Amino acid sequence: MTKPPRKPSKPLLGEADALLRSRPRRRRDPDQPNLPLDPMPARIEPCLALLRAKPPKGDDWVYEIKWDGYRLSVHIEPTGIRILTRGGHDWTHRFPAIKLAAMWLPVGSAILDGEAVVLDEQGRSDFGLMQQSLGGRGGKKSSSDAIFMAFDLLYFDGHDLRKSELDMRRHLLGDLVPAGEQGDIRLSEQIEADGDELLASACELDLEGIIAKQRRAPYRSGRLGEWLKIKCVQSDGFAIIGYEKSTASFGGIGRLLLAARKGEQLVYVGGVGTGFNERSAAELRSQMDKLIIGNPAVDTGRKRNAIFVRPELVAEIQYGGWTHDRKLRHPSYKGLREMQDNARIYEIA
């Protein structure tokens, strides 16, 4: 065991054997301002990505993989952890593993922006698996399978970072959530590559697409163009307005009848009869049976064996494009969107 240093037998002396003393501390000038800390926002509206057909060009853009899950913000506060959905709903209790991981991050206060996802066996995010882990739309289960892919840092130890450039925010985020770690909070890594080549690689791996971000842009809430999304396949939300019955299909659902928004109205855009499994069809049928109405909310044309419902459910549909008469081409059902996730119905221009 190391011994404590002995006290000097004599005081330290300077020139002319004068005692060495520190300078007396000045009193603080009351006119000198304190350096204030930024108040921690209770909630920040997320920055949203604009859809584009092709990746942008230029060195000002960096790329990430597009994750297919639930957009969340993780608030690390002196009083505890809060996990908020895109719509501002508190879902802390539904992501206990992410909450626990946030408690171990080496920071006193922070707001992380990212996406909760469930990965399949190939490591790809799967929206259907994400929903199943939460017990389906309207379910009350907590997800033990979801992980949080962090892609931005908005607040850090008393400092609001939204006016800082993306490169600075990402630098601090990388110190907080190091690349390559495999915990329940992981870094969504940036990729500096040619956008067209990266998109092609993402599509070959059956990923949803890529996100392009301006490296020098501040963080601005809304869909303003600093972030762009480029998809391998089109996927959007459509209102369910009914279904056609079938005794040979899961849940007795032959086809879902779908609508998009045009101005203040809903318009019929066709139906979808693929993408269901026994579990998702049973969940759908249970939800729709609570919403049955006598007449369709929009004109669907003549339909046999159709049951109509109030347009309160939003289905995420993957599709290959549009027909000449504005119906969905090759649609496939992916799952139901949550209202807490700001379920958005596709708008026809």
UniProtKB/TrEMBL annotation:
Do you know which SUPFAM superfamilies this protein is assigned to? DNA ligase/mRNA capping enzyme, catalytic domain, Nucleic acid-binding proteins
Q: What is its EC number?
A: 6.5.1.1
Reactions listed under catalytic activity: ATP + (deoxyribonucleotide)n-3'-hydroxyl + 5'-phospho-(deoxyribonucleotide)m = (deoxyribonucleotide)n+m + AMP + diphosphate
Q: Which Pfam families match?
A: DNA_ligase_A_C (PF04679), DNA_ligase_A_M (PF01068)
Q: Which residues form a coiled coil?
A: none
InterPro entries per UniProt: ATP-dep_DNA_ligase (IPR050191), DNA_ligase_ATP-dep_C (IPR012309), DNA_ligase_ATP-dep_cent (IPR012310), LigD_ligase_dom (IPR014146), NA-bd_OB-fold (IPR012340)
The ATP-dependent DNA ligase family profile domain, residue ranges: 139-231
**Keyword terms:** Ligase
Specify where the region named Disordered lies, as residue ranges: 1-40
Q: Name one GO molecular function term.
A: ATP binding
List GO BP terms, alphabetically.
DNA recombination; DNA repair
Q: Which Gene3D superfamilies match?
A: 3.30.1490.70, DNA ligase/mRNA capping enzyme, Nucleic acid-binding proteins
* Family membership: Belongs to the ATP-dependent DNA ligase family.
Q: What is this protein called?
A: DNA ligase (ATP)
